[in-house]
Amino acid sequence: MALWLPGGAAGIDNLVLPLVLAPLIWAVLFFHACLDRKLVRVALIAAGLLAVHGGLIAQKFLDPEPATTEAHP
What is the pTM of this model? Predict the structure, then answer.
């Protein structure tokens, strides 16, 4: 998640949000898998989330905009 989240105020990638969101996403997927009666629906939702995450990462790597370099005095 640190690849596609916006950078923090200090100019570094925001790492707190992925550390909080990752366990929450896994917990939601786990409880959904336990509580849903249709295994196909559970697999489709998990595959959809995987595709969205993979697409966001691919978009970050395929972005033609060059990285900016800032010189700090």
Answer: 0.60
What pLDDT, in 10s, does the model give residues 10-54?
Answer: 655 566 677 777 888 889 889 999 998 999 999 999 899 889 888
Q: What total number of domains does the chain contain?
A: 1
Range of the domain at 37: 23-60
Token pair for 46? 């998990």
Residues 33, 49 contacting (CB under 8 angstroms)? no
In a domain, 3, yes or no: no
CA 49, distance to chain mean position in Å, is 9
Q: Could you tell me where the DSSP H helices lie in the chain?
A: 16-35, 39-62
Which token pair is 56? Answer: 């966001």
